[in-house]
Structure formats: structure tokens, C-alpha cells
Amino acid sequence: MAQTRSSSNLIWNLLSYAVLIFLALLSVGPLLWMLLTSFKVDDDIVTRTMVYLPTRFTLESYIKLWNQSGYPALVINSLVTTTMTVAICLFTGTIASYAFSRYNFPGRTSLMLGYLVVRMFPAVLMIIPLFIVMRTLGLFDTSLGLAVAYTSFLLPLFVWMLKGFFDAAPKELESAARIDGSTRLGAMFRIVIPIARNGLVATCVFVAIAAWNEYLFALMLTSSTGSRTWPVGLQLMVGEFQLPWGMLAAGGIISILPVIVLFALVQRVMVAGITAGAVKG
Amino acid sequence: MATLSIKGVRKSFGTVEVLTNIDIELEDGGFLVLLGPSGCGKSTLLSIIAGLEPSSGGDIIIGERNVNDVHPKDRNIAMVFQSYALYPTMAVRRNIGFGLEMRKVPTAEREAAIQRAAELLQIEHLLDRKPGQLSGGQRQRVAMGRAIVRNPDLFLFDEPLSNLDAKLRVEMRTEIKRLHDRLGTSIVYVTHDQIEAMTLGTKVAVMKSGVIQQIADPQTIYEKPANMFVAGFIGSPTMNFLRGTLERSGETLGLRHGDALLSLPGLEQDVNAYAGKKVVAGIRPESFHSGAGEGTLSGTVDVVEPTGPDTMVILSVGGQLLTARLGSRDRPKLGDAMTLALDTAAINLFDPDSGDRI
Amino acid sequence: MSRASVAALPPPRSTWDAINPLRLLGELSETRYWMYLLLLPSALLITAIVLFPTVYGFQLSFTEMRLNRPVGNGAFVAFKHYARMLSDPIFWLSLRNTAVWVTFSILIEFLVGLVAALALNRNLPGSKVLAVLILLPYFLPNVVAGNMWALMLDSRVGVVNDILVNIRLLEGYKAWFADPNTAMATAIFVEAWHSFPFFTLLIMAGLKGIPSDLYKAAEIDGAGVFAQLRLITLPMLRTIIAAAVILRVIGLVNSPDLLLILTQGGPGRSTQVLSLYAFQNAYQDFNFGYSGALSVVMFLLLMLFAWAYIRLSKVNQD
Question: What is the ipTM of this complex?
Fold first, then answer.
């Protein structure tokens, strides 16, 4: 066994590095493979012998994707839906989160718990009625309808995450502002929200990523003409026989690029927020 | 029970040196206090003694062993942390016996040792509780129980009383002293509180910015501080510093400050080299008295603070403010002119540039 | 009192002031009901979009609703669906598969997530970059994750197959998802790959809450790395791990997304889980009533599990 503290420390550090590098490769490897695949010609992808690096570097998968499958429309639909979802969450959730953070009222804990229990309802249970309701309301196959459906499970998450950030902002500042003559509304908008701005952005990004990625609800509540989103479109390309791997890869890469970029930008704040909420919860 | 030798220990983080050339010898059964303001390196030094951090140079010798490369658990030391660091998910009993448990001491022996330690610290009734259910003072005792149960060669205390309120602090201070008297184990104690240093230590090392300013027994540090920093750090209210020029007229020495002359009979320092030069006189507030004496200072009363047993009078002497501790009967009024005599033998003269005692 | 606080504000100084909506909102914010107003929009939304459909769904489970039959829809049939479930062999199979699916996924996700969190917590240089990479899979969509691995594990062109053959672990390319013996395990692997960062995130948060002094004291007490893990770290992570497990179980039981993309329940029902079964009953057989009943059963099982788990961990604590 290691005799001194520093030598045993060294061993554990080396082991940690080994584990971390292995996991990082495992996490990122498939993405790299997909990236490589998206640049390969079809002959390189579907061959008898494995081709690792592309023999020819080509963009034909991307071009095919863009032109043939109506992918651009799908991406735009996703953009619209995601934006609407974030907007709804932003406007209704921010004030709710603020209320949970600042005010103590009867039923507060049970209401908060209620927001969470809501997550326990199976998606399948809700989709059927939602399907029927949306049809009746004429919201079926619309971006707005889908966005509203998304808020059902994203809004509680939004409120919960944001509450953690609000809790971290000192309450004394609002009291000082109110003494200075501001109303509660003014204090909320002029003082607290700017302070929690980072957390607000991170929470919005988290919700945006979730909405952008979502598959099941989109599958059920949209159809080809109206507002189908890219995850459904991508999956539908998986045909019965020959799988268009090149296009699938290209589609995948295009669609997760924004996710990766956003994630890398806000990950520190977002991680802090998720963890803060978790610790308190 | 063992001696502790710290020889030439240094510590740097990158280019920043946090400990410079630390040399300390502690006799067997002694109580060493590392005293200094925050950031002076005392906690770092304690960590190095414990083996939690490596030094950048120098040796730590416990008993006869050089423990530089020895793991903390094999140094036969025990530590009490400022935050107590009690294991929250374990009962007090297991907390105390944890070190023995890790060393595979048989259960019967372990239980007996835990019982002894608990009796000593009067916490038998708490043995089955969890740390979360205890008060601050009780947690302190449990932390100490965990330390003493292993009969180590050396106890390390890292500011153990800082988290307690004033009254509890005094109580626990006495407890620690009592413990030391009973067990006789060597102790290294880190604190920024000079009262703790004075009451508990047999040896005090005053530190500043990683350098030891003075090591001596408490009394010496109090009466003959090695420099102005030490002088100002120990003693409350702090020592007065009166600036002036040293004058010699024949056999007598005097301090000329402003227009006045303060005679300094009975001064124990050899200050001949400084005749005619600027010096700083360190005068403790306690050395003032309102009777008669050879050395006197005159000034106007600036502030009067009755404290109950004493009266603190801040005197403006030629523009310099001095604090005097007088009896409760002395009640001068603001603006009064006042002349006070001093015990001049207790005065320390310092070099104004280096701050060192002459 | 609301009146008093409104009166305390300065009176409107002009006509615009009197009708300025922002100002009126500000006045409104001083009333006693402000906090309820803040909660109102979201509460309404959630009631409408969640509670109402859920109640409707429960109701559905008691009715006969087959969209591919012209008549007889909406008829109340009480517990007919539930009774049918008990004698439905596919139901029991799905239940068993769900148990396997959930248990092993969570086990692997927890272990890998824990190890990653512990390693990241050492804050070695480069940790920040490694953390971003390691956390990435969780934020990828199911669609992409599923298809990526489908490509890599493909029986003809899968690169994983190629590597395994080259290092002599496999004889020939394997059809991971087409073999009933390996389909479930492979799906579990993909699921674990996708969601282990969830555990890493939460455990990392929990680790930050453990004071470092505890580990110093443990070192001096002679506790080695594994003892520290067992006796200090894990007990103090108990609540967070419980929360993570419950959330993950809910996620795994409730959403058929990944399996829908990877296997659709095949081959031959070896990966048929309850959520998939309910989904297929609804959208392939159009038997909404039965599907609703299955979903209700899923929900009840989840509530049972959550309650049992919480009870168990509380009992352990004392």
C-alpha cells in the first residue's frame, strides 16, 4: 500500500484521469463517429470492410438532406416551437418562481410538491387526452399547440430551477428598493431579475434544449403538413430497408450543433442551478 | 508524549511563499500556541505538522522520528478542527471511537476507551446521539473526545473556540487547560485570540506573514515583545506607542516628545547607541497611575471610558493619543489637563524604522 | 390592508398617470393578492394542460374507446380493462421487462455517474473541459443518441462490431438489436450512456456540500479512500441519491422514447416495456381505453415505488 500521503494521492489522481478520459472518449466518441459519417460518401459508409476516415470528404449527405426531405422546414418548425415554449415558460414561470421564492403562503410547500408530482404522470396517459383536446381546439399540428403541450412538463422544471437562482439573490435589496419608494413590481423587475439574469438565461437554455430535443409529444401532436419538428422528421427517415445513414448523420449533426454550442456556453451556470435546486430539494 | 521539532520548514504555493524558515522546539508535555492574524500561515503550519499538507522544505520531527514522509494516520497525532468535523451520520459513540475502529482495535478495548474519554469530558449521556442533535459546546467536547481516545503523542487544535459564543469560550478554554494538566500530552494550538494564547500556552509563537516574530513564554512576550507588531498584537487594550527622540543628559535617559521630556529611570534596555536618535516608546496602559513618579506624561483628556472595574482614559499628549488604564475612582472630565506617572521600568523602546525592540 | 397600502402610494399626477398600465400594475403589486396573481398564469396553464388531461385519462381507463370502431365509443365499462390486464400475458411480460429495464439502467447509471462525479470532484487540471464532454450525452436528443448507437452497432456497418472483431472479442459482426438475447442489454447500455450524466450532475452538487474537514479528520483517524467513501461520502449523499433515483425511475417508466427509436419492443417482445405497450395500444391499435388503463397502472406503480423508497431511506436514517 502507499506509504505516504502524496504517493497515494498521486495514484488516485492518475486513476481519476484514466476514468475521466475514458468516459470523455466514450461520451464524445459516438458524436465524432457521426460527424465522420456525415462527411463520407455512401460507398464509404455501407461497405464490406470498415472505413474509418473518409476516403473522400463530401458534403453530399448534407445537400441531399437539405433538398430532399424538407429538412429546413422541420428545423424552422422546431425553432418556432422552441421559441414559443421558452416564451410561455418565461412569462408565466418567472413570476411564479419569484412568488415561490419570496413569499410564504399557506399551501406553499404542497403547491411546490404538486408542481413536481405532475411529472409523475406518464406521458402516454396525457398524450391521448391532449390529442383529443388539441384536435377539438384546432391546435392539433400547430407549433403553438405543441409549445403549450411542452409547457406541461417543462414549466414545473423551469419554476423549480429558477427558484434556486432567485433564492440566491439577497432579499434585503428589494426591501431597500421598496423603502426607496419602489413598488413590489418595480423591485421585482428592476432589482431581482437583473441579479438572477444569469440563472434566468441558463434556465431558459435548459428548457430550450429540452423542447428542441423532444420526440414523443411531437410525434403525436404534429403531422407532415403543419408543424412537424426535426426529431420526428429524422426518425421517419429510418425506413424499412436501406437506412440512409449519411443523411441521418448529417441531420443529427445539424440539429445538435445548436444544442452543443448553447450547452457549452451556459453549462457552468446551468450546472450550478440544477445542483443548487437539487441540494435544496 | 513526545517532543516536537520544527526545523527550517518552508512552504510556497507557486511563487508565493506562505511560510519562511520556521524553527520551533517544543518540550515534552508543552503547550505551544501559534498566534497571529488571519493569513499569517499558522493553520498551514498546523496542517504540515499533521501531514495533511507537504512542506516545501524542512523537517518535522515528532519524538525521535522524522515524519516528513509519514502518513497522518501513522504520526500518532490527533486533531480538533474549528468546525469540529464530526461525522454527521454516525452516533457520538462511533465518532469518538472511529480512529480506533479504523485501526482495528478490538471492540471491548474500544468501548472501554470511549467510555473513559466520555467520562473525562462529561459527555456519557450523549453517546447515542448524533452530532446534529448537539449544541456547539457539546460538539466541542465530542471532538476533543475523539482526539484523546487514541492517546496520541501530540494534540493539534485549529482555532477550536472560534465558533463558540463568548461565555462558552471561556468555559471551554478552562476545559482545555484542565485537560492538558491532566493528560500531560504535548499540544500545538492555533489561534488569533491573544487571551487564549496567554492563558493556555507554555510557549507562544507569534507569526506574521509566514514568519515567526517571536517565540517565548507568554510572560516574556507580554513584557518584552520582540518588535512593534508583537507588542501591538498582545495585550488589550493595545500598547501605546509614543514617538520621540532619545536624550541623554549625564546618567539619565529621557524621551523628548514634542516639548516635554519623559525621564526613563530603571530602563532595562541597553540603548546607548540610540542617544540623539528617534525612538518609539511602547507603554502599556496598565503602567499609568495617577500617583507620583519620576516619569510623567501630561496631556488633555480626550475620551473617558468607564468599564466598571477600571476607567480607560485617552490622553492627547502633544498630538499623540495614549490610552491609560486607571482605577474606577479616577473620573477626569473631558478637556481636563492631566498628568500621569508611569512605571518606566516596564517601558520598551523600539527602533522606529525596523520596529524591532532595541 | 390593501386599501391602506394603495393609499400610501403618491396620487396620480396627471391623466396619463392615472391610466398608465404599468403604474396600475405597480399599484396592484402592493395588494395582498399579488402573490396569488403571480402564481395564477402558470397554475392555470398546468391545471389545463396537465391535470385536466390526466383526469380525462383516468376516466378513459374506465371507458371503452376504440378509435377504429365506428360505434360503442365512450361507453362506461368500469374495470373491464383492468380485469383484462390481469389475464393479459403481454402485460405481465411488459411488467417484467420494465423491471429489468429500470433496475439495470439505474444501477449502471448510478455507478458510472458516481465514479465520474468522484473523479471530477478532485478538481484536477482539465476537469472543466472533461466535465463538459462527459455531461454532453444527457443533453443529446433521444433521436440522435438512439440512431447514433444504432449505426455504431449495426449488424453490417457498425464500427463497434468492427473494433470488437479486430481485438478478437467477437467472431463476427453481431446483430445486437436483432437478437432477443442481447437486445435488452444493448438498449440498457445505450440508455445508461445517455443518462448517467444526470447522476453525475446531482452527485457533484451533493459532494460540494460535504465539508472537506470531514475528510481531513478521517485521514487522521486512519480511514482509507474506500472507508471514506463508504462511511462519509455515501451516507451524506443519501438524500440526493434518493431524489435522483426517484426522478430517473419516473423518467424510465414513463417515457418510451428511446425504446421506440431503438427496438419498438422487439425483437419478439424482448424489450417490450409497459410504456411502449401502452403507447402501441393507443397509436397502433387505437384502443384508447385499454391504453389509458395501462397508463394508470404505471402511475400507481410509480407512486407506490416513490412512497416505498422514501419510507425505506427515512427508516435507514434513524
Answer: 0.81
